Amino acid sequence: MESKQLKWVYLMVLALVWGSSFILIKKGLIGLTALQLGSLRIIFAAVFLLLIGFKSLSKIPVHKWKFIALTSLFGTFMPAYLFAIAQTEIDSSVSSILNSLTPLNTLILGALVFGLQFKRNQIFGILIGLIGSALLILNGAIHHPEQNYYYAILVLIASICYAVNVNLIKKHLHDLSPLSITTGNFMVLFFPAFIILFFSGFFEVVHDVNVQESVLFIMVLGVVGTGIANILFFKLIQMSSPVFATSVTYLIPVVAFCWGLLDNEMLTPVQFFGAFIVLIGVYLSAKK
């Protein structure tokens, strides 16, 4: 399959996986605290990746490890906790919508900080996608006035972290394999995450049935939604562009809304219309 076609396959798979992540976080928070959830997500992903990718660590040059550490901080560590804390107050679907601001942040940071060039149609695509996202957000706020939207700021911060991450990878780690980058990221994060988990009180409540059920949800989230998905994402960045890769965040709300519907989260015609506009934005941002 040609690279032009393959990047769309990667994009769709990532949208399905990451779009499902928000409902898994929601289910995980039933029995876990936000800190416990974020830590377990990282730990499960780290164990999985070290099992399949430990040998790939030898391919990382010594001078590249500082960038591995930075991408682990911005691409995984901070967002894992920020999303978990945010979803203690806002719906999973709202969280996924706000995450769609990532491409705009990627464009701005890429141009101002990393010196990357983007085409005019990519800018139009991002702006159109943001209009669709705004419709989703505003309409959701009207129908869910009980939600604390101050916590939405945490999702915005996470989207900025993702933007920094993809630009760092494109500029400094483009010559490394996705497996090496991902495994290196989680090797760096394993011990900090375990320390946070240890002091979170998790081992005092681990025998609780609700906790155990939540852990299963986060195991899926860690292995599939974090470990495997990150490998695919880094590959997508390398074969396309940071803006195209992060345009997956425009498709994620569509998947998240479907899960939200099954979990009794309210959807409106306006929200579906906003999702359609988002898809147009994705197409324009990827068009040559």
What does the model show?
By secondary structure, the protein is mostly helical. The chain has one domain (3-286). 78% of the residues lie in helices and 0% in strands. It contains 13 helices and no strands. The chain has helices at 3-28, 34-53, 65-86, 92-98, 102-112, 120-143, 152-172, 178-198, 202-205, 209-239, 242-246, 248-262, 269-286. α2 (34-53) runs antiparallel to α8 and α12 (248-262) packs antiparallel against α13 (269-286). The protein is globular, with a radius of gyration of 18 Å. It starts with a helix and ends with a helix. The mean pLDDT is 85. It comes from Flavobacterium ranwuense. It is found in: Membrane. This is Permease.
Give a brief rundown of this model.
The protein has 288 residues and is mainly α.
Supply the key terms.
288 residues, mainly alpha
Task: Produce the secondary structure layout.
Layout: H1 3-28, H2 34-53, H3 65-86, H4 92-98, H5 102-112, H6 120-143, H7 152-172, H8 178-198, H9 202-205, H10 209-239, H11 242-246, H12 248-262, H13 269-286
Helix content: over 70%
Strand content: under 5%
- Indicate the low-confidence ranges by residue numbers: none
Overall tally of domains: 1
DSSP strand count: 0
* Mean pLDDT across residues: 85
SSE class: mainly alpha
User: Major β-sheet, in short?
Assistant: none
Q: Overall 3D geometry? A: globular
| Rg over alpha carbons | 18 Å
